[in-house]
Request: fold
Amino acid sequence: MDPARLDRCAGPLDYTRALRSFHQAIGEPAPTRPALPSADLLRIRRTLLDEEWAEVQEELDLLQARLAAGEAQADPPAELHRLAHELTDLLYVTYGTLVQLGIDPDATFAAVHQANLRKVGGPLRADGKLLKPDGWQPADVRGVLEGLSRGTEQSQGTEPSRDTGLQEG
Reply:
């Protein structure tokens, strides 16, 4: 695969396919079905996630301090671009971790999203968090992974459903 193709997309970016292509381009595993990782892979993914989370926390703290001190500009892009960058880096590493485990992030996200939608109408905590209503059931992520393992759950990162301009290796 030509790594230069990684940054040219012909339409909406398919994040799963993009991360799978990235990992293939750098010679890293990108299985298309759930697979147990090596201890080394888990170690590096943990390190990357910890580093990115620390950077997100730093930007959150800086923005919170600027807001509290009245120093924040009335220009959201100027104030939010660093936080947006770090949050996106965290998403990138999170998606990459799932891809390296052979898990389709879009499939698990869809299941978790549906479970969260079932919280609508539930009680609110004092800080505004929506709580689980009586009878709420969590996402069946295990079922999604079992479907991916059997090939019965569509994996967005391996199906040519959307042209992203990325070529699979």
In short: Helices lie at 15-25, 39-68, 76-100, 105-117, 141-150. The chain has two domains: 13-103, 104-148. The first helix runs from residue 15 to 25. Confidence is low (pLDDT under 50) at residues 155-169.
